[in-house]
Amino acid sequence: MQLYVQETLIGTVGIAEQDGCISNLYFKKDKFPSCGECSKSALLVEAFRQLNSYLKGDISVFSLPLAPAGTSFMLDVWQALCRIPYGKTSSYKEIAVVLGNPRASRAVGMANRRNPLPVFIPCHRVIGSNGTLTGYRGGLALKKVLLDLERRAG
């Protein structure tokens, strides 16, 4: 695994690459893994370029090879998250319905919490059924910043 850390508009971020794909994004408050090789690769440089462009409101879609590790259910949830349009939100229940199991809201929430690629896989676009902001690994303040950015730029 390669890890590259850089300062961004949302603070210190680490992005990890494994086998030619982006595997993890870490926020400053996350525990950054120790890695055999902490260095820039062309893919990590490109991931930061796209992340910074997104944070400036210049792009709304990422074009990176992503390889999040998780169960098949988690992967299904994360794919559903990627279909939430830029600037829009969805609820845990709506995602569960999309996946064909309307009673799986809690399991969707668990998969959302374990998303190893926040921002790239837009788990910040998932809110409570009543419209309130709910948990986010980067913190609710960051979730609000990302949603506001998308609403303004979109």
Quick structural overview:
With 154 residues, this protein is α+β, with helices and mostly antiparallel strands. The chain contains five helices and five strands, in the order βββααβααβα. It has a three-stranded antiparallel sheet, with helices on one face. It has a two-stranded parallel ribbon with strand order 4-5.
Topology record:
Blueprint: E1 2-8, E2 11-18, E3 21-27, H1 42-55, H2 72-82, E4 90-91, H3 92-98, H4 105-113, E5 126-127, H5 140-153
Can you walk through the features of this model?
There is one protein chain. The mean pLDDT is 93. A 3-stranded antiparallel β-sheet has the order 1-2-3, with helices on one face. Strands 4-5 form a two-stranded parallel ribbon. It has 5 helices and 5 strands, in the order E-E-E-H-H-E-H-H-E-H. The chain folds into 2 domains: 2-55, no CATH class; 72-153, Winged helix-like DNA-binding domain superfamily/Winged helix DNA-binding domain (Arc Repressor Mutant, subunit A, Orthogonal Bundle), CATH 1.10.10.10. By secondary structure, it is an alpha+beta fold. It is globular. The protein is 36% helix and 17% strand. The longest helix has 14 residues, at 42-55. A hairpin with a 2-residue loop joins strand 1 and strand 2.
